[in-house]
Q: What sequence folds into this?
């Protein structure tokens, strides 16, 4: 039997941060974390960061344990950060039972991450319907099939279910889902993290304070 391969040997020498990273001076940061997030997201898009709107969504399961997965940021409004899912999915059930969540954006090419925590609210019928209609037909078909995260016998069953629902979508104009929901995370705390080659990372935390925000620097 060969010697086991240690993870530390596999990752040893792998660069952690890029050679060049965008500057970040907290002294010039705007008073609202929403404004700073938009600045950072726009910079990530301009720099060609892959899937800059991909975000890790963390929730709490029925067993009280944390659960995480990567989803897509749908929008950012005055109310907060929006993602979407079916109410019947694990994350939909978890957000309904415990309406709070954490979001983490990570842009390795810029050495940046943004962490968000807050309460969760659900969209109204028209908002949910409009978001559903913007989805790719196959994405809509998967929602209508209603089996997300359940055990799948095989690929044939998946293809058959998708094909059936695509035919329904094509035959019924404006066909909607009764479970598709836009979830909005209203931020109570937002942290901006900028990497430093010497590990003296810059961390700026915004927390709700009355009608505005308090800014505090955090130790790396």
A:
């Amino acid at each position: 039997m060969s010697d086991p391969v240690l993870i530390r040997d596999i990752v040893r020498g792998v660069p952690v941060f890029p050679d060049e990273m965008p500057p970040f001076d907290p002294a010039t940061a705007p008073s609202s974390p929403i404004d700073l997030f938009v600045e950072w997201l726009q910079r990530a898009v301009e720099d060609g960061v892959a899937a800059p709107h991909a975000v890790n969504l963390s929730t709490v399961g029925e067993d009280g344990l944390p659960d995480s997965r990567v989803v897509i940021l749908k929008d950012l409004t005055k109310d907060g950060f929006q993602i979407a899912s079916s109410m019947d999915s694990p994350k939909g059930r978890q957000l309904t039972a415990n309406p709070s969540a954490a979001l983490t954006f990570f842009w390795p090419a810029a050495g940046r991450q943004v962490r968000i925590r807050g309460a969760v609210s659900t969209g109204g019928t028209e908002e949910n319907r409009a978001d559903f209609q913007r989805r790719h037909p196959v994405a809509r078909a998967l929602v209508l099939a209603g089996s997300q995260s359940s055990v799948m016998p095989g690929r044939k069953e998946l293809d058959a279910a998708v094909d059936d629902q695509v035919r329904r979508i094509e035959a019924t104009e404006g066909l909607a889902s009764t479970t598709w929901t836009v979830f909005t995370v209203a931020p109570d705390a937002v942290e901006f993290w900028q990497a430093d080659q010497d590990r003296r990372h810059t961390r700026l935390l915004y927390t709700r304070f009355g009608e505005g925000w308090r800014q505090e620097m955090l130790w790396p």
About this structure: The longest helix spans residues 155-171. The first strand starts at residue 54 and ends at 60.
